[in-house]
Amino acid sequence: MTPAEKVAYIKGLMEGMGLDTEKGEGKILAAVVDALEDLALGQEDIQDAIEELNDGLDAVSDDLELVESVVYEEEDPDGGCSCGHRHHHHHCCEDDEDEDYEYEVVCPACGAELVLEEGDLEQGVISCPECGETLELDLTEVEDENDDDDDYEEYDDEDLEPEE
């Protein structure tokens, strides 16, 4: 039974007893019950406010967890990381040192954008899947830039030379 329900019960008892609330002890009891009723209603309002604050706090806590996952780059359970990348697409997080790097280049013959993996670079020669042109890869810039510890590299036409 809530405090408001208890006060209502006491009020009902007073009415059932036929107390004269205009004189003596009945007047005092009526005033006490009115004060209790005000306190009980105020307590209900406070409980409602506390529930609303708890709901807001839960929402803020959820938002904070999201911010922490971005700041501390925690991985998603579905395989992505806080940066939004899937590690099998390209390397972006320091913890995944065993991942292969990918490089974007443009075929100088047809202009097609090619994505090369580290294994392609080691071969030194590739064929453009769009035009079939054989391209010789110049690895000197790639090796220099990899020494700088860049996780994701992008190269332009100058890095590829058609084989003659």
Structure, described:
- By secondary structure, this protein is an alpha+beta fold.
- It has two domains: about 70 residues; about 60 residues, Rubrerythrin, domain 2 (Single Sheet).
- The chain is built from four helices and six strands, in the order H-H-E-E-H-E-E-H-E-E.
- Strands 2-1-5 form a three-stranded mixed sheet. It has a three-stranded antiparallel sheet with strand order 3-4-6.
- A hairpin with a 6-residue loop joins strand 3 and strand 4.
- The radius of gyration is 37 Å and the shape is rod-shaped.
Note the gap between the termini. Answer: 92 Å
Please provide the count of β strands: 6
User: What is the count of distinct domains?
Assistant: 2
Structural Rg: 37 Å
Summed over residues and divided by their number, the pLDDT gives a mean of 76
- In DSSP terms (H or I, runs of 4 or more residues), the helix count works out at 4
The order of strands across the largest sheet is: 2-1-5
Order of helix and strand elements from N to C terminus: HHEEHEEHEE
- Structural class per helix/strand content? alpha+beta
What does the largest sheet look like? 3 strands, mixed
Low-confidence stretches: 85-96, 149-153
How much of the sequence lies in strands comes to 5-15%
Helix coverage percent of residues? 40-55%
Q: Tell me, what's the shape?
A: rod-shaped
Secondary structure blueprint with pairings:
Layout: H1 3-17, H2 24-71, E1 102-106, E2 113-117, H3 118-123, E3 125-127, E4 134-137, H4 140-147, E5 153-154, E6 160-162
Parallel strand pairs: 1-5
Antiparallel strand pairs: 1-2, 3-4, 4-6
Helix pairs in contact: 1-2
